[in-house]
Each structure stands twice: as C-alpha cells, then as structure tokens.
Amino acid sequence: MLKKVKKAKAIKEVQIHENDTGSPEAQAAILSKRIDEMLKHLKKNHKDNHSRRGLLGMVSKRRSLLKYLKKKDEKRHSAIVEKLNLKK
C-alpha cells in the first residue's frame, strides 16, 4: 500500500495540469510505485503467491495503460516511459 505522500510525489512528477490524477501518465506512475513496493515485498517473502498474482495484475494494467497512451499519442508515451525508467 502506498502512503499518501509517495502517491502524491509520483503524480507530481508526471501530471499534465494542476489537478491531474486520472490521466494515463498519472495512473501508470502510481502503478509503477506500487509495483516497486510489491517487488521489495516479494524479495523478502518469495513464497507469497497471492501477492505475486496481484503483482502480475498490476503489471498487466500498467502495460495496457501504456499501450493505450502509445496508440493515442506517441510523444506522451515516450516521455512517460523515460520518466518512469521503463524498458521499451
């Protein structure tokens, strides 16, 4: 679970305008932070298969958001991939 401060910081880095919380960029940033937290958890608890399934769902959701963004606007997609340090 992300704390309010970490979530706000993740959104602040990629937001398009002042009150932006629902854009694909903001959602992908939040998911990326949650994925990082989950990876830390799974390194300590490698047998936690329920969390592993949740991680796969988050990765899939982020992938679909980025795919949508790439279809809509290639520049925004490449910018968010660069900001989040993702492969692609």
Entry keywords:
single chain, mainly alpha, Helix Hairpins, 4 helices, 88 residues
Which shape, going by the Cα principal axes? globular
What is the number of helical segments per DSSP (H or I, 4+ residues)? 4
Going by CATH, what is the homologous superfamily of the domain at 23-83? Answer: S15/NS1, RNA-binding
Please name the CATH topology of the domain at 23-83.
Helix Hairpins
Helix content: over 70%
Task: Look at the structure and give the CATH class of the domain at 23-83.
Answer: Mainly Alpha
Instruction: Kindly provide the radius of gyration, computed on alpha-carbon positions and rounded to a whole number of angstroms.
Output: 13 Å
Order of helices and strands: HHHH
Q: Low-confidence spans: pLDDT under 50, at least 5 residues?
A: none
Mean pLDDT: 94
CATH architecture of the domain at 23-83, by name, is: Orthogonal Bundle
Largest sheet: none
Structural class: mainly alpha
In short:
The chain has 88 residues and is mainly α. The protein has four helices and no strands. The longest helix is centred in the last third of the chain and has 24 residues.
Task: Explain what the structure shows.
The chain has 88 residues and is an all-alpha fold. It has a domain at 23-83: S15/NS1, RNA-binding (Helix Hairpins). It has 4 helices and no strands. Helix 1 (4-14) crosses helix 2, helix 2 packs antiparallel against helix 3 (49-72) and helix 3 (49-72) runs antiparallel to helix 4. The longest helix has 24 residues, at 49-72. The model has no long low-confidence stretch (mean pLDDT 94).
